[in-house]
Amino acid sequence: MQPVSRRSFLAVTASASAMATITSSCSGPGVAVANPHDVCIDDVRMEFEDHRYRFPHVFGGFTTDRCTLLNVTVRVSNRQGKSAEGFGSMTMGNVWSWKTQRYGYEETLGVMKTLAGRARAIMAAYREFGHPIEMNADLEPAWLRDAAALGQEQQLGEPIPKLCTLVTTSPFDAALHDAYGKLHGRSAWACYGQEFLNSDLSRYLGPEFEGQYPDRYVEASPKPRMPIFHNVGLGDPVLAAERKTPLNDGLPELLEEWIRAEGITHIKIKMRGSDEAWDLDRILSVDRVASQAKNAETNPVLHYSLDFNEQARDVEYVLAFLRKLKERNPLAFERVQYLEQPTGRYLDQDRANVMHEAAKLRPVVIDEALTDVETLRMAEEMGYTGCALKACKGQSHTVVIASLARSRNLFLSVQDLTCPGASFIHSAAIAAHVPGVTAIEANGRQYVPSANAGWKDRFPGLFTVREGQIATEEIRGPGLGAVA
Fold first, then answer.
1. Does the pLDDT of residue 22 top 50, yes or no?
2. Contact between residue 167 and residue 92 where contact means Cβ atoms under 8 Å apart
3. 214-474 in CATH: which number?
4. Alpha-carbon distance 157 to 159, whole Å?
5. 225-242 residue pLDDT tens
6. Which of 317, 343, 309 is closest to 231 using CA atoms?
7. Residues 37 and 78 sit within 8 Å (Cβ to Cβ)
């Protein structure tokens, strides 16, 4: 069988089963002078790994008590025959990425597992040389087309969301970046300049970015230490009276216990968004407990993010909530660093629900709605002043979005979708390599610490919180740094 060219690949990738049969060698890009750093994909493998939460995580109208990790290994080679393997991992996150009332947990997870298998076949069939970001520019549209085809084949009553496809394919993209960096013996974050890429950012962001490369916006070396955001889910006990059954597993359970054990300085608080009295009581309760836990400190540091997970009915709810919070506790209000995705994720269906007034009070961050460059630009038009970077949307996506966001001076946060193990290392690396990010979410240690087993021994400073911070300086290996 003849090698598949880029044009042929784009024409036929709607059929994953057909692509799975292609095993020919890589072809060159057909340019006069080939980039010696380019790689091609030789092999793609995947497996699933299941874990139970130590207690349920309640957020955004949903409850989840388990996770399935998708682990991917990709082998690449250069034109001289040198090869390297990379690893990527991500929790499937079906409850968050496929927000549906039609299907249950096992049904959406089953579709995502099928989608992952087909994504593997599509990636294995891609035979062009290039840089991971450029490869992803071909692969992502192919993956999205296949997701649409899968939905039709299974006669689903609703399309597979784009966010769901990004989450499913993100470990494939991560493994590719990891392999690329390892082949070149350096961090993947040090491989985003003109020396490595064949196209500048104008290919993804438009002509105003001509001559600019991602290395202008991201750092090759990580920040040595970063604060973590501790999560307070809707079902998490803040007060002793809220604890239904003690876990007695050796880990903290109440908020005060976490703060005293780890010196927490940043707290993410889940909001109901439909019950103003409850939301106000929740943040005031968190603030009382946190303030008391830190009363021995001369200048206690406390920052909050308020995550509505799309549950606020409109921006008026958010404005009224913030104004009442400021009236009742000005210090708690001042400690609010930013707001996350207050209203629905489908911005194009709710263009009138703008965030300009809310953003005058605190940065408003797009999260669930952010699936591409277009949605970020739409969000900015609608008054959003920040964006959440997430490993679960793909390394290529993250690097491009971070470049656009930093060029626009947007507020930046990194959230981790309760990522454990290698997926947390990937997430923490994003926070450590993108200037402007002030803290990293670290939910895995709270809800699914079993999935950190082994990783914590190899990266003790990264998986152990001291004085509210983790040692991101440990992410210094080649690739994405998840393998010592």
1. no
2. yes
3. 3.20.20.120
4. 7
5. 999 999 999 999 999 999
6. 309
7. yes
